[in-house]
Specification:
mainly alpha, 74 residues
Length: 74
């Protein structure tokens, strides 16, 4: 158990309130950065994973409207 008479780095006895006031802003910034980078990274990864479906959709639309032979109609 910590000694209640010990002094912290600032020359005052640390309390939960003081520690929370010192840590809370840094924790909020860290959480905001994690949220932004997580959303951005997820957006990029999902886009890369769905890119083949976009190519398949475009090929299906082309096949629906045009001839299936690459040399035109025979």
């Amino acid at each position: 158990m910590p000694d209640p008479s010990s002094r912290g780095l600032l020359g005052i006895a640390p309390s939960r309130y003081l520690l929370a006031r010192m840590v809370a802003p840094a924790a909020a910034v860290a959480m905001a950065c994690l949220l932004v980078f997580g959303l951005l990274g997820g957006w990029i990864l999902v886009g890369r994973m769905l890119a083949p479906l976009t190519r398949i959709r475009d090929a299906a639309r082309l096949a629906e409207t045009g001839p299936l032979s690459p040399f035109g109609s025979a």
